[in-house]
Design goal:
This protein is mostly helical. Helices cover 64% and strands 0% of the residues. The protein has helices spanning 2-13, 16-20, 23-38, 52-66, 78-82, 89-105, 110-121, 124-127.
Protein backbone atom coordinates (compact mmCIF):
# COMPACT_ATOMS: atom_id res chain seq x y z
CA UNK A 1 0.00 0.00 0.00
CA UNK A 2 2.82 2.44 0.82
CA UNK A 3 4.46 1.63 -2.51
CA UNK A 4 1.31 2.76 -4.27
CA UNK A 5 1.25 6.02 -2.33
CA UNK A 6 4.94 6.63 -3.00
CA UNK A 7 4.44 5.93 -6.69
CA UNK A 8 1.49 8.34 -6.80
CA UNK A 9 3.55 10.97 -4.98
CA UNK A 10 6.46 10.45 -7.40
CA UNK A 11 4.12 10.83 -10.38
CA UNK A 12 2.76 14.08 -8.97
CA UNK A 13 6.27 15.39 -8.34
CA UNK A 14 7.44 14.58 -11.88
CA UNK A 15 6.98 17.25 -14.49
CA UNK A 16 5.14 16.53 -17.71
CA UNK A 17 8.52 16.90 -19.40
CA UNK A 18 9.92 14.03 -17.34
CA UNK A 19 6.74 11.98 -17.76
CA UNK A 20 7.01 12.07 -21.57
CA UNK A 21 10.67 11.06 -21.53
CA UNK A 22 12.56 14.36 -21.48
CA UNK A 23 14.36 16.24 -24.20
CA UNK A 24 14.74 13.48 -26.77
CA UNK A 25 11.06 12.61 -26.55
CA UNK A 26 10.01 16.27 -26.91
CA UNK A 27 12.36 16.68 -29.88
CA UNK A 28 10.83 13.61 -31.54
CA UNK A 29 7.33 15.03 -31.03
CA UNK A 30 8.43 18.37 -32.51
CA UNK A 31 9.97 16.60 -35.53
CA UNK A 32 6.71 14.73 -36.16
CA UNK A 33 4.72 17.94 -35.56
CA UNK A 34 6.58 19.71 -38.37
CA UNK A 35 6.21 16.74 -40.73
CA UNK A 36 2.45 17.02 -40.21
CA UNK A 37 2.47 20.80 -40.68
CA UNK A 38 4.59 20.73 -43.83
CA UNK A 39 2.35 18.02 -45.29
CA UNK A 40 -0.69 20.28 -44.74
CA UNK A 41 -1.47 22.40 -47.80
CA UNK A 42 -3.19 24.98 -45.59
CA UNK A 43 -0.02 25.58 -43.56
CA UNK A 44 3.00 24.80 -45.72
CA UNK A 45 3.22 28.32 -47.19
CA UNK A 46 3.73 29.90 -43.79
CA UNK A 47 7.08 28.14 -43.61
CA UNK A 48 8.52 29.11 -47.00
CA UNK A 49 12.05 30.36 -46.47
CA UNK A 50 12.11 29.36 -42.81
CA UNK A 51 15.25 27.66 -41.49
CA UNK A 52 13.51 24.57 -40.13
CA UNK A 53 16.35 23.21 -37.97
CA UNK A 54 16.48 26.48 -36.07
CA UNK A 55 12.69 26.61 -35.79
CA UNK A 56 12.60 23.05 -34.46
CA UNK A 57 15.20 23.92 -31.80
CA UNK A 58 13.12 26.90 -30.68
CA UNK A 59 9.89 24.89 -30.73
CA UNK A 60 11.51 22.08 -28.75
CA UNK A 61 12.63 24.59 -26.13
CA UNK A 62 9.18 26.18 -25.99
CA UNK A 63 7.34 22.85 -25.62
CA UNK A 64 9.92 21.68 -23.07
CA UNK A 65 9.36 24.82 -21.02
CA UNK A 66 5.57 24.48 -21.26
CA UNK A 67 5.91 20.90 -19.99
CA UNK A 68 7.96 21.98 -16.99
CA UNK A 69 11.34 20.95 -18.30
CA UNK A 70 14.68 22.46 -17.35
CA UNK A 71 14.81 24.31 -20.66
CA UNK A 72 13.93 27.97 -21.03
CA UNK A 73 12.71 29.35 -24.34
CA UNK A 74 15.05 32.19 -25.27
CA UNK A 75 13.84 32.89 -28.79
CA UNK A 76 12.28 36.09 -29.98
CA UNK A 77 8.89 37.15 -28.66
CA UNK A 78 6.11 35.14 -30.32
CA UNK A 79 4.24 38.29 -31.35
CA UNK A 80 7.33 39.64 -33.12
CA UNK A 81 8.10 36.36 -34.88
CA UNK A 82 4.57 35.91 -36.22
CA UNK A 83 3.78 39.55 -37.00
CA UNK A 84 2.83 40.21 -40.61
CA UNK A 85 2.37 36.54 -41.50
CA UNK A 86 -1.42 36.86 -41.66
CA UNK A 87 -2.00 33.81 -39.50
CA UNK A 88 -5.68 33.03 -39.18
CA UNK A 89 -7.62 31.41 -36.39
CA UNK A 90 -8.18 28.43 -38.71
CA UNK A 91 -4.43 28.07 -39.34
CA UNK A 92 -3.66 28.33 -35.61
CA UNK A 93 -6.31 25.69 -34.87
CA UNK A 94 -4.86 23.40 -37.55
CA UNK A 95 -1.37 23.76 -36.06
CA UNK A 96 -2.72 22.98 -32.59
CA UNK A 97 -4.45 19.91 -34.03
CA UNK A 98 -1.15 18.70 -35.47
CA UNK A 99 0.46 19.14 -32.06
CA UNK A 100 -2.27 16.99 -30.52
CA UNK A 101 -1.71 14.36 -33.22
CA UNK A 102 2.08 14.32 -32.72
CA UNK A 103 1.69 14.04 -28.94
CA UNK A 104 -0.97 11.33 -29.25
CA UNK A 105 1.11 9.32 -31.73
CA UNK A 106 4.01 9.50 -29.25
CA UNK A 107 1.84 7.91 -26.57
CA UNK A 108 1.61 11.00 -24.37
CA UNK A 109 -1.10 10.79 -21.71
CA UNK A 110 -4.28 12.74 -22.53
CA UNK A 111 -3.98 14.88 -19.37
CA UNK A 112 -0.50 16.01 -20.42
CA UNK A 113 -1.73 16.72 -23.94
CA UNK A 114 -4.55 18.83 -22.51
CA UNK A 115 -2.18 20.85 -20.32
CA UNK A 116 0.28 21.36 -23.18
CA UNK A 117 -2.34 22.42 -25.70
CA UNK A 118 -4.01 24.71 -23.16
CA UNK A 119 -0.67 26.47 -22.64
CA UNK A 120 -0.11 26.72 -26.40
CA UNK A 121 -3.65 28.06 -26.89
CA UNK A 122 -2.72 30.87 -24.51
CA UNK A 123 -0.30 32.14 -27.16
CA UNK A 124 -3.09 32.70 -29.70
CA UNK A 125 -3.38 36.48 -29.10
CA UNK A 126 0.31 36.84 -29.98
CA UNK A 127 0.06 34.78 -33.16
CA UNK A 128 -3.39 35.18 -34.76
CA UNK A 129 -3.86 38.22 -36.97
CA UNK A 130 -7.00 37.22 -38.87
CA UNK A 131 -10.03 36.03 -36.92
CA UNK A 132 -11.62 33.35 -39.10
CA UNK A 133 -13.41 31.68 -36.18
CA UNK A 134 -16.09 34.37 -35.84
CA UNK A 135 -18.62 33.51 -38.39
Amino acid sequence: MNDSRNEQSDNQARSDYEAVGGGQAVAAVVDRFYVLILDDDRLRGYFDGVEMDRLKRHQTALVSQVMGGPVEYTGRQLRTVHQGKGISTDAFTAVAGHLVTALTEAGVEPAIIDRTVTAVAGTAPDIIEIDTAAG
